[in-house]
Design a protein that fits this description.
This is Multidrug resistance efflux transporter family protein. InterPro entries: EmrE (IPR032713). With about 325 residues, the protein is mainly alpha-helical. It is about 75% helix and about 5% strand. The protein has one domain (about 1-315). It has 13 helices and three strands, in the order ααααααββαααααααβ. The protein has a three-stranded antiparallel β-sheet with strand order 2-1-3, with no helix packed on it. The two termini are about 25 Å apart.
């Protein structure tokens, strides 16, 4: 029961990403600063954690060995993930973005052929090219149906252009995030823990954020104090607290695929927490019955997908990341 509770708390803190991004947009803050400030503020917190665990030197050694790969995949995994997420906040409420973001399960599955798996056989481990898990994809169609139902409410008072700008960037992010993180996991080969990897990717993505910040200074000016404070809250709640809670929960059930699937499924609660947060904090538009039905389908689809994806997992040891929840 403890891992489930920790997973739910992680979803609660992850939800602040979507709520605060929407809040900053409604207050007139630019998506440029919502995106870049989060990663600037994450650096000192992650440094403290990694240094406290005495793992900084091994991280720096890994980064020096393949600097270009770190730069490229970190910019994709963090830059092309979070910048579009923040951009979409100008065109859709946070709860809708949180729900649409669950499509990352589908995106991650479609990326499987780009990676190799280590499969245990009678003759020992062998490397096989990943295959798209079509059984899990069937469950993912439930998630897609839920997202379509939720978008239907927005279609009543938003233009097609606005809906597209609120959804398409999230779809781009849903591919960039698992792609960047999986490539980095392959590159690290299990030599770094999650905190080292997240700090390393944050540091390696800083050039992307510096360039984006310069563009922001030239086009919209510096961020306000309020936006800086809210961005720091996102960095702490989602980038640090939620990540620690979620990975501690997964560590507690390591080796038990059914329990691991249950912990991963708790992340569907992000959608519900985002709705509640926006209703109370931002006085957002109350979702209609169709949208609530869509949210229910998204959450059910996530639970079913998680269980099916782990059903036969004991026979396979995959070197590719199976959950895409590193600091969402």
């Amino acid at each position: 029961m403890r891992p489930i509770i920790l997973g739910i708390f992680a979803a609660f803190f992850f939800a602040f990403t979507f709520i605060l991004n929407r809040s900053m947009d409604l207050a007139g803050g630019s998506w440029i600063w919502s995106a870049s400030l989060r990663y600037f503020f994450m650096v000192p917190f992650l440094f403290i954690i990694v240094i406290g665990r005495k793992n900084l030197n091994s991280l720096l050694f890994e980064m020096k060995s393949s600097p270009i790969a770190w730069l490229v995949w970190s910019s994709i995994g963090f830059g092309l993930f979070y910048a579009p997420i923040c951009f979409s906040a100008a065109y859709a409420p946070g709860w809708l973005i949180a729900a649409t973001w669950q499509i990352t399960i589908i995106s991650g599955s479609l990326l499987a052929p780009l990676f190799y798996e280590k499969v245990m056989t009678e003759k020992g481990p062998i490397q096989l090219k990943g295959k798209i898990p079509f059984k899990g994809m069937a469950m993912s169609s439930i998630i897609l149906l839920g997202i379509i139902l939720m978008q239907w409410q927005q279609a009543n008072h938003l233009s097609i252009a606005d809906i597209s700008l609120g959804v398409l960037p999230v779809i781009i992010a849903s591919f960039a995030y698992p792609l960047g993180n999986r490539k980095m996991m392959d590159l690290c080969g299990g030599r770094l823990d999650v905190f080292q990897r997240v700090l390393g990717m944050t540091l390696a993505s800083l050039p992307f954020w510096f360039v984006l910040s310069i563009y922001g200074l030239l086009t919209v000016g510096p961020p306000s104090i309020g936006q800086s404070i809210q961005s720091s809250l996102v960095a702490i709640s989602s980038g640090v607290i939620a990540t620690i809670l979620f990975f501690h929960a997964t560590d507690l059930v390591r080796g038990d695929m059914k329990k691991l699937a249950a912990v991963e499924a708790t992340q569907s609660m992000e959608v519900l927490f985002a709705v509640i947060g926006e209703l109370f904090l931002l006085n957002s538009l109350f979702p209609n019955a169709l949208s609530w039905s869509g949210m229910g389908l998204v959450m059910v689809g996530m639970v079913l997908h998680s269980y099916i994806s782990h059903k036969s997992a004991p026979a396979t040891i995959s070197i590719s990341i199976t959950n895409n929840r590193i600091s969402s």
